[in-house]
Design a protein that fits this description.
Blueprint lengths: L3 E2 L5 E2 L1 H28 L10 H4 L20 E10 L2 E11 L2 E10 L2 E10 L6 E16 H9 L11 E15 L5 E16 L2 H5 L13 E17 L2
Antiparallel strand pairs: 1-2, 3-4, 3-10, 4-5, 5-6, 6-7, 7-8, 8-9, 9-10
């Protein structure tokens, strides 16, 4: 490095000046590199020349749950206890596959004999006290003929000697209300009409009740009649 004396008496060191200039430029570059990432981070992503697919990642969020929505229905099972006329006392298993539909099947006993009974209940509105429509079918085996005649006539009747037991079908429809104070218990009641179809296999002995003709012959006889229906009952659910 060459040193000269300037007119003011000082030292003229051009090499030293050029060295200082190079160090200044290097420091400036380092500062720019240090500041550059932060500056780029503060830039608006829309102003940066970055592909749209890399600017923002879409994060899927689950749809909010509606707490007021009715939960999905699950099939329910239980038992049914009923007392009524002319049905008598009955017990049945129930299955409730839909909110608006319920089915039952079981056994029944009235003052005429034993039988089997099944039916379908329709619940158009689900309320604390709900309306219900019921359709039922039952078959009673070997009903006591003497008691049957007494019930039909409304007064004691002496049966024919050859008739001891008869069977009959019963179809009924009723409307009513049911009350569900808890999930597992439901009380119900209803009124309606019932149609009876009585099978008299030995019709000759049946007709001899009204005639003394020993030559009388007859084929099996079916007798149809209707009567009112009234019942009260209890449903017990297991789930």
């Amino acid at each position: 490095m060459r040193t000269t004396v300037n007119q003011r008496g000082g030292l003229d060191t051009p090499g030293l000046v050029r060295g200082h200039a190079r160090w200044a430029r290097a420091l400036t570059c380092l500062l720019m590199l240090a500041v550059s990432p932060g500056a780029r981070a503060q830039q608006d992503p829309e102003d940066m020349d970055i592909p749209a697919s890399e600017q923002e990642e879409t994060v899927a969020t689950p749809a909010p749950t509606d707490t007021d929505a009715t939960p999905p229905w699950k099939t329910r099972f239980g038992m049914r206890l009923v007392a009524g006329a002319p049905e008598g006392l009955g017990i049945a298993a129930i299955i409730h596959p839909r909110r608006w539909a319920r089915a039952h099947v079981g056994a029944t006993r009235n003052n005429l004999g034993f039988g089997a009974r099944g039916g379908l209940s329709l619940i158009p509105l689900e309320l604390i006290i709900s309306p219900v429509l019921e359709l039922e079918y039952g078959y009673y085996f070997n009903a006591d003929y003497e008691k049957l005649l007494t019930q039909l006539h409304g007064q004691p009747t002496t049966p024919a000697t050859g008739i001891r037991e008869v069977g009959y079908h019963q179809v009924s429809g009723s409307v009513g209300l049911e009350f569900s104070p808890t999930r597992y218990v439901t009380f119900f009641g209803g009124v309606g009409i019932s149609y009876w179809l009585i099978e008299v296999r030995n019709a000759r002995d049946f007709i001899l009740e009204a005639t003394d003709d020993p030559e009388l012959t007859a084929r099996p006889l079916n007798i149809g009649l209707s009567s009112p229906v009234a019942k009260l009952g209890l449903l017990i659910y297991f789930n």
